[in-house]
Amino acid sequence: MIRGLSLRALSGIGRRASAALPGPLPDRPRGPLVWVQCPDPARLGLVAALADRIAAEGDWLHMLVTSDDIPADADPGTRTLHHPTPPEEPEAIRAALAHWRPDVVLWFQGDLRPLLLDEMGDVPRILVDAEADLIRLSSRSWVPGLLRRIASGFDIALAVDQAAADRLYRAGLAPERVEVTGPLDTSRGVLACNEAERRNFVQLLAARPVWLAAGVALSELGAVIAAHRQASRSAHRLLLILAPRMAEDAAEMARALTEAGLAVALRSEGSEPEADTQVFLADGQAELGLWYRLAPVTFMGGTLSPEGNGRHPFEAASLGSAVLHGPGTLPHPEAYARLDRARAAWPLRTAADLGQAVEVLLAPDRAAAMAHAAWDVVTTGAEVGNRLIDILRERLDRAAG
Predict the structure, then answer these.
(1) Element (H, E) at 36
(2) Fewest CB within 10 angstroms: 48, 135, 258, 348, which?
(3) With 60 as the cut, is the pLDDT of residue 225 above it?
(4) What are phi and psi of 152, to 5 degrees?
């Protein structure tokens, strides 16, 4: 509890007042539970991936993810539960805490809720992805020094940059509790491939220029064909490896490619790209680990439609393939934004831009520079994830002991 500060005073600064919890509470899972306050819906997938990675490494825990804005179609994964954040009202908060009994709290970015954090008492608290502009109370308050008192209750904070760290110092968190780590991303396992297959394709392709269109929807096929035609004018013997989003779309895509006058070889028929093959059509997305390794440039399919539904761009970036993407970056908008900010990906405004982007990046130095920048982004995010997992384990061990 915050000393010298009444909960009655605090309750007057809440966004709303209600003694009722927002909807029925599901059963609390057995074992350790981490309460994750995640105000940004774009990070929900990241939290689920973090929980799944911890489980894959042999640690048994669940995560309760609370937010004011959880999309109806958000996938919680196998180790997370989604529920609205309780209102800033003492009875509702106490009821939620009595039900969930969290062992550790992860608080993303900032937007601090004084009542909720105060009622958590001695539960270890970790501030993650702390951003300078968001290190604030969730509502205006007349209570002097409240931000300092709330911020100082965190055991440790992982700041995205020095500006965020300085803001935390001014807010009252001791410097020894602050680490400047950069933004978080989980270490997504590098997609595997058959090494014998990879060596075989390297020999088959020799010095041919190659680009990959990964997870392409039927609606995007026209744009991919147009891009390949444009890039082929300046890249002799250019090969497109096309991996459909749905394996069952391969036959229809093969017909469309043939009707467009392109020479197509189908993986499903046991074919291999020959000297005159222009498009090698894969069996869906099952072998993307192989294709990313072979192609220095990858267009992330599913991103040309506004609603997105493409794959995570770090899959390609972690294997050295330069990333091209359209405006539809859901469900991984933050990952794409980080690559874009670092000039480690090429954002396309329209489908018509794809051909020019492929053409430019077929220059080895351009693709290599972008891939190197992407690698820096990927590895930094993974290192932050490693650090966070270490901290979580340490706090959970303490709680269990």
Answers:
(1) strand 33-37
(2) 258
(3) yes
(4) -70, -10
Alpha helix ranges (H) inside 81-217? 90-100, 114-119, 146-151, 162-171, 195-205
Tell me how far CA of residue 164 lies from CA of 265, 313, 344, 381, in angstroms.
52, 26, 23, 17
Amino acid residing at 337: A
Instruction: Say which amino acid occupies 45.
Output: G
Q: What are phi and psi of 46, to 5 degrees?
A: -65, -40
Nearest to 106 by CA among 395, 399, 334: 395
33-37/104-108 β-pairing: parallel
* 109 CB-near residues (< 8 Å, 6+ apart): 39, 40, 128, 129, 130, 131, 134
pTM given for the model: 0.66
The residues, any chain, with a CB within 8 Å of residue 4's CB and separated by 6 or more, are: none
Apex CA 192: angle with CA 190 and CA 195, to 5°?
135
- The enclosing H or E element of 336 equals helix 333-341
Determine phi and psi for 390, rounding to 5 degrees: -60, -45
Residue 122: count other Cβ atoms within 10 Å of its Cβ: 8
Question: Is the pLDDT at 13 greater than 70, yes or no?
Answer: no
| pLDDT given at position 4 | 44
Pick the closest to residue 215 from 193, 190, 246, 238 (CA basis): 246
Q: Which of 291, 330, 286 is nearest to 312 (CA)?
A: 330
Contacts of 218 (CB under 8 A, 6+ apart): 244, 249, 252, 253
Bridge partners, residue 107, by sequence: 37, 127
> Among candidates 43, 49, 50, which has minimal Cα distance to 389?
50
CA–CA distances in Å: residue 351 to residues 100, 303, 305, 358: 47, 10, 9, 12
Is residue 265 within 8 A of residue 274, CB to CB? The reply is: yes
Please report, in angstroms and rounded to a whole number, the separation of the first and last CA atoms in the chain: 23
**In a 3-state reduction of DSSP, which class is residue 67?**
strand
What is the token pair recorded at 299?
A: 């267009």
Q: What is the pLDDT of residues 284-310, one digit of tens each?
A: 999 999 999 999 999 999 999 877 788
Question: What φ, ψ does residue 7 adopt, rounded to 5°?
Answer: -65, -25
Q: Over the stretch 155-184, which tens digit does the pLDDT of each residue have?
A: 999 998 999 999 999 998 999 999 998 888
